Structures are given as structure tokens and as C-alpha cells.
Amino acid sequence: MNFKQMKNTTKYICFLLFLMMGIQQVSAQDVLEDYIDLAVKNNPKLKSSYAQFEAAMRKSPQVSSLPDPTLTMSGLGRMIETRAGAQEARFNLMQMFPWFGTLEAKKNAANLMAEAKFQKYLDLKNQVVYEVKTTYSELYSLSETIQIKEEDLQILESYRELALSRFKSGGGAMVNVVKVDIGKDAAITEIELMKEMLKPVSIKFNSLLNRELQENIEIQDTLKLPILPLEIASEENIDENPLLKAIEKEQASYAAEQTVAEKEGMPNIGIGVDYSIISKRTDANPEGNGQDAIMPMVSISLPIFRKKYKASKEQAQFLLSSSESEHEAVRNELKSMLAMTVYEYTKAEKLLQLYNKQLVSSGQANKLYISAFSNATGDFEEVLRMNQDILMLKTQRIEAVKNGFNAAAKLEYLLGGEENSNSEINKTP
Hints:
By secondary structure, the protein is an alpha+beta fold. It folds into two domains: 342 residues, Outer membrane efflux proteins (OEP), CATH 1.20.1600; 65 residues.
């Protein structure tokens, strides 16, 4: 193989490696999305909430339909004589009609309440997505911290060999070896405790997905912080939150209920027909002898007992007033949460930049301390201290990533879910 062929082969291999890394990164990003889709599909709370919405949708046909017509049949045991003959049977059919606009008002109120149920379902869905993301980030944090501490165990083992070698050569104290052993024991215990902590967090995660509690969970090797534009902190953005929309729909429904109460206080009008079967007279033959009688009828209800209509209207007014106060309280709470969450995200972002910078400097200093100790010009205590500082910075960096990711997930919830916040916070560099 000549040099040109080797060069082309190398380029091809590099391209394949780059492509595989890209595919792996995309699949890693898809892992959490797949879990979210599974939770939205299977979570029992969501199923219950959606069933309530479906039930509320069935209310509209019930309240917007006319009352059933009334059919009255009379069989006369003793026939009543009329001029045209004796009555043998009588039928009365009556249909009542509510006051104009009553059925439409009832339908409107029911539909608005159903829309409120749907918005509550969306809010619960966003809560479930938020819980899945934060629980997943906790699993990520634990897994990454365990990995870092296990790597640190290997580093401590190399330090132990270095300290033992210096002791055997007469250039160091045995206490340095003992200090390393103390650090290793502490690290082993911390790793065991975190592995134990993985169990309840995994159970919580699987329960959100409504699957076997011991099901294996795939943890991606990195979490990315979405870019957060400054305009995200605007208070107007929280108006898309489904919880606020649900309260607004309830307010509109209560206003419609007031209209319903007014309409129900008006008379109902009935239209019907009365049909009598007449037998022929045998003793005479008057005009219309034996002809059945048909008589149109109109009736009207008299809503003279007004207390129930007044109470119904006042009930809707109080519910509307309560809903307005609730809307104001929830919006104030969401505004407060939005401001705090933006701070938490900004804090995590700045700390992450700091830890990355400090890790580079600490790594350089650590190499210098190790070199100095190896040349019998440095203190082993400084080597251990710097290694502990590096370990702390690595764990703090993981914590910052987790906190920033959780803050972004909370912002997504506050802004009304992924479909409303995609253009704002769900952009990755």
C-alpha cells in the first residue's frame, strides 16, 4: 500500500469514527425523549386526568338537548258523549322548549369547563415531564459521581505506590501510605452509599413511567444545558402556562353559568297536540259524526318561585370571584418561581464556567506537585490536598450541570411545556 492509499484509508476511518460519534451523541439525546414519551403514554395520573377531560366532554350533549316530549294516553272506561259521538280514547303529546338561548348557554358553560379540564391535563402532563427530567438528572449525577470516585480510587492507588516507593528508598514517611489508605476507605464507603442511593431513585423513575420498578435504565454520558435568552424572564411568558389557562376557562364557564341562571328564570314554552278518538253516533247523524278531534295546544311554565334562580346566579358569581382571586394568586406564584428559576439557571451556568476553568489550572498544579514529590522536593500532603480539590471540583461541576438542567426543565414547565418553550429555551449550542 502506497502513501496515497494509506492517507485515503486514514481519512475514511476518521470519517467513520466521526459519523459513529455523531450517531452516538444523537442517540444519547434521544434516550431521555424516549423515556418522556413513555411516561406521557403510561403514567396513571395522566390517564386519570385525561379520562376526566373525556367525561367532561360528554356533559355538553346532556345539557344542550331538549327535554323529552311527554305523551299522555287516556282510555275512558265510561265514554264521554260529545255532539259528534262518544270519546273512546285520548292522546296528548307535549314538547317543552326552554327560553331562547338557554340550551346554547348551557352548552357553552359545559364546553368551557371541559376545556378547563383539558388544560389541567396539560399542566399535569408538564409536571410529569418535569419530574422525569429531574429524576433522570439525579440518576445522571449519581452515576457520573460514582464513576469519578472510582477513577479517583485508581489515582489514589498510584499515589500509594508512589508513597510506598519513596518510603522504601528512604525519602518519605510511612504515614503518607496510611493517609492514602484512609482516603481510599472513605472513597469506597461513599461509592457504596451512592450505589445504594441509585436504587430508590431508579424506583421513582420507573414508577413515573409506570413500568417494572427494577427495569434497567439507560443513562446517557452527558447532559447539555440549553441556551437561555435574556427575554425568557419576561412575566408575560407565563401566560401560556396551562394552569393559568385552566383557571381562565373556569372563569368563562362560571360567567356562562350566570347566563344559564338568568335564562332558567324565564318561562318555558310547550307546544303539543291533543288527539281524541270519537265513535259514530247511531241515534243521529250530525255533521262530522264520528270524526276524531285534533286540538293544538300551547303551555307555558310560571317561574314564580325565584329563590332557586337567585341562589343559582349568586353561586356562579361567588365561584367566578373565587376563580379570579385564584388566578391572581397562581400568577403571582408563577412569576416568583420564574424569577428564582432564572437565577438558578444563571448561577449554574456561571459555576460551570468557573469549575471548568479551575479544573484546568488545578490539573496543571497537580502535575507540578507530583513531580516535586517524586524529586524529593515537595510535600506529599500537598499532592493529596490538590487531588481532593480536583475531585471536589469534578463533583461540583456535575452538580452544576444537574442544577442547570433542572432549572431549564422548570422553566419549560413554567412557560407551558415544550411545545410553548421550544423557541425559547430548548436550543442547544
